[in-house]
Amino acid sequence: MLPGIEGEYGARRKRGKATMRKSLFCSAAAASVLLVGLSLTAQAADLPMAPPPPPRAPVFVAPPPFSWTGFYLGGNAGAGWNHGNISDSAGLFSWGANNSTTFVGGGQVGVNYQFSNVVVGIEGDFDWFANNNNSGAGTAIAGGAAAGSVVQGSNNGRWLTTVTGRAGLAADRVLVYMKGGGAWVGSNNLTLTNIGPGGGSVSIGNGNTNTGWTAGAGLEWAFANNWTAKFEYDYVGLSDKSLTVTIPGIGADTFSTNNRNVQMVTVGVNYLFNWGN
User: Fold this and answer.
1) Are 114 and 276 contacting, i.e. CB atoms less than 8 angstroms apart?
2) Which of 110, 152, 166, 237 could form a disulfide with 138 if both were Cys (CB 3.0 to 4.6 A apart)?
3) Where are the domains of the chain?
4) What is the pLDDT of residues 228-266, one digit of tens each?
5) What CATH class does 70-274 carry?
6) Beta strands in 89-226 (DSSP E)
7) What phi, psi does 136 have (nearest 5°)?
């Protein structure tokens, strides 16, 4: 073989051997890395699993505040007292028209509007009185054709209507309020009854309506979104009235009522068609 060729052939063999050694070294390094990775994976598999993260606490969403705004209607019941005096110009009769406690029952309708914690509104009430014993003790007549008679008078309030404005302060579902406005009381006839010798009675005038004013205060509690319960006190002041009639044996006589008032304590329930809840 020629010297030049032999030299070139030897150089190629050397380069081939170097390349082979390099490949073997890379293969061995790759195998080592693979073995280390497999070993680490096996060790990781033997480790205990990490505990799951604790559950997230539920997000609390506060309910919307209660609102008194809206229309309402309901019913009420309680006790009433009708007071006043009846007298006549002839000086024959004078008695206090005061009756014992009587049952009161009826209904109410109204509307509220709330801004901040202030509640304002308008309310109308209608109540019946179970009042049939509003009579004086009786007055004896000493002279004239009616001498010897004992006359008893009665004038019973039968119903009460009020139209009032309301204003109060609310603490969520509790409302403290005051009210005031106009009042109308319907009465049956003023009746004079002779409870002495001879008996008999006379009805004076027609059933009538007496006007006046009213003021009151109350506490109302919303025990459900649309239902409220209330406790209320009302005072009704009535105007004085006069009526002139002719009584057999006595002649013309003018009867006057004065200092009349009605007081009531009631409890009630309302259904609230509220706009805010």
Assistant:
1) yes
2) 152
3) 1-46, 70-274
4) 999 999 999 988 777 776 665 666 777 777 778 889 999
5) mainly beta
6) 94-96, 102-115, 118-129, 139-140, 150-154, 157-171, 174-187, 190-194, 201-204, 208-222
7) -80, 170
